[in-house]
Amino acid sequence: MERGAVLVIITGHRGALGTEPENTLRSFRRAVADGCDEIELDLRVSADGELVIMHDATVDRTTSGSGEVAALTLAELRALDAGLGEQVPTWSETVAAIDVRFQAEVKAEAAVPLLAQSLKSDPALAARTLVTSFHPEILLAMRQAFPDVTTGHIFGRTPEIADVIARTRAAEASWSLCGIAGLTAAGVAELHAAGLSTTAWPVPDAKTLAEAVALRVDGITTDNPHLLQLAR
């Protein structure tokens, strides 16, 4: 979406979370079809060391099974129904199937070396991946494992902008992903002046998208990309 001469990146949260089973290839494809520039997803590691897409530490909420992701093998994860007959996807199959940018949130520190190796071995993939986390130690571990990585620090309800800047810099990140509640145009301007790019979230509808664009953010994250199509 154009903000003057600047592109506002539309990111689909876990794909098209509002209409499809989250963190599945079906959800990611729907988000792309609904016009997303980028897909947000969550990374964990299976018991046998495979990088898989799953938000929660357990599979209970989003699949037909139960138990911790880290205690289940890839084969056991793949045997589960992740919604509408979808399987739990791996990172490798997702990046092969989806050709837009990725916002890859690292949920488990065990994912760091696997993700770093994936990005190191594929410069084109690295160029279209923003690695994010709420946890600075994960972002710093990614930076150590792959110094060329682009990273973003996630915040909930936006704290004082000076704190956002300090915490983002301490995590050696270049993006601040801020809860739209409490975010102001002046705050976004401060972040930009500090050399940081900014995403606002969540943006559930066209009205909130217009508010986010007025803040002059660089991107937004939404559960409902289908509701933003006409606003683009």
Give the tags.
single chain; 232 residues; alpha/beta; eight-stranded parallel β-barrel; two-stranded antiparallel sheet; 9 helices; 23% strand; globular
Itemize the secondary structure elements and their pairings.
Layout lengths: L1 E2 L2 E2 L1 E5 L11 H9 L4 E8 L5 E3 L20 H5 L12 H7 L3 E6 L4 H10 L2 H5 L1 E5 L2 H10 L4 E8 L3 H10 L4 E5 L5 H9 L3 E5 L4 H10 L3 E4 L10
Parallel strand pairs: 3-4, 3-11, 4-6, 6-7, 7-8, 8-9, 9-10, 10-11
Antiparallel strand pairs: 1-2, 4-5
Count the strands?
A: 11
The succession of helices and strands, N to C, reads EEEHEEHHEHHEHEHEHEHE
Label the overall shape. globular
Whole-Å distance between the termini?
5 Å
User: Over all CA atoms, what is the radius of gyration?
Assistant: 17 Å
Q: Please summarize the sheet with the most strands.
A: 8 strands, parallel, barrel
Note poorly predicted spans: none
Which strand order spans the largest sheet, edge to edge or round the barrel?
Answer: 3-4-6-7-8-9-10-11
**Structural class by sheet pairing and helices:** alpha/beta
Helix content: 25-40%
